Amino acid sequence: MKNTLTIFVLFLSTFLFAQETHETEAIKAAVKTQTDTISMGWNSKGKVSFLFNQAAFSNWAAGGENSISGTLGLNYNINYHRENWDWDNRIIVAYGLTQTKNSEFVKKTDDRFEVNSVIGKKGKNNWFYSGFFNLRTQITKGYRYDTDENGKEIRMENTNSFSPAYASFGPGVLWKKSDDCKFNIAPGTSKVTIVDSDLTLPNEEYFGVPEGESLRYELGMYASGYYKLTLLDNIVMENILNVYANYLEKPENVDIDYNVNIVMTINEYFSTTVNFQTIYDDNAFNGLQTREVLGLGVNYAF
To answer: Which pLDDT band holds residue 33 (cuts at 50, 70, 90)?
Structure first.
């Protein structure tokens, strides 16, 4: 619970800081909202990116391990605006690999496939009556790594394609100032966890799914926030927060997924990208999971 509060406060602090120190961006967002209202029908935009990291050492006294890694990503938005209706859809795909000199295995650094869809009917001011659907899963198998009695590195299959997969959906209310600033809360959310039954473990230790089964159903409260702001002329920060509490079992153990993307644009095609993600889900791991990636990116927008 403390981890949940810490990350929520971090997200909220970022939001409030931006509101106080970036008045110009607020004005731009207001103008953009008016433009979105005027622009009816379907509109879409997306970006394909390739993030590259490399390290090489030769006779380096301090030590080091040669490595090379790359991440291919797709971020695509398909939105619909019609009078009192908004329908926002986002597809996120990312897959990354790394190879180090002293390991015989190519290892994953990222593996995501995510679909977010929120439809809303206009209410008062910036409020909408909403319904949402979210799907999160991975593309390929995942492994845990260890060493055998001879010190040789070995790996054991831990996850699979679409195992786990999380599908969440439910009615709620949406507060939307612009496409770059919105918050949705759904107090009656159904969440389904899908796994490969062959990988399940006793005592529901495989993502909370009972041994020999492939599904776990939960009913709870889901909230999601999205805020994108410009820190400097060429630096953009994107905050994505997802929170879920299961009414049926341990509602105090709130699942969180907080993602921060900072993009420092060099020119039309090149940028430096910092991605930080932290997850708390005691069905998967009893503690904070964190991931951080920094590298030079090649981008193509369409």
So the answer is: very low
- For residue 117, count other CB atoms closer than 10 A to its CB: 16
Global pTM reads: 0.82
Give 108's contacts (C-beta < 8 A, 6+ positions apart).
Answer: 95, 96, 97, 98, 140, 142
In sequence order, what are the beta bridge partners of 265? 271
**CA 272 to CA 235: how far, in whole Å?**
9
Q: Which domains does the chain have, with CATH numbers?
A: 2-32+47-75+95-301 (2.40.230)
C-beta atoms surrounding 290 within 10 Å: 11
* Percent above pLDDT 90 for the chain: 69
- The widest CA-to-CA distance across the chain, in whole angstroms, is 68
Task: Report the distance separating Cα 132 and Cα 118, nearest Å.
Answer: 4
Read off the pLDDT band of 302 (50, 70, 90). Answer: confident
Cross-strand partners of 297: 51, 271
Give the number of other Cβ atoms within 10 Å of residue 30's Cβ: 12
For residue 274, give the H/E element and its range.
Answer: strand 270-281
Confidence of residue 24 (pLDDT cuts 50, 70, 90): very low
DSSP 8-state class, residue 207: T
Tokens of 16: 């409030």
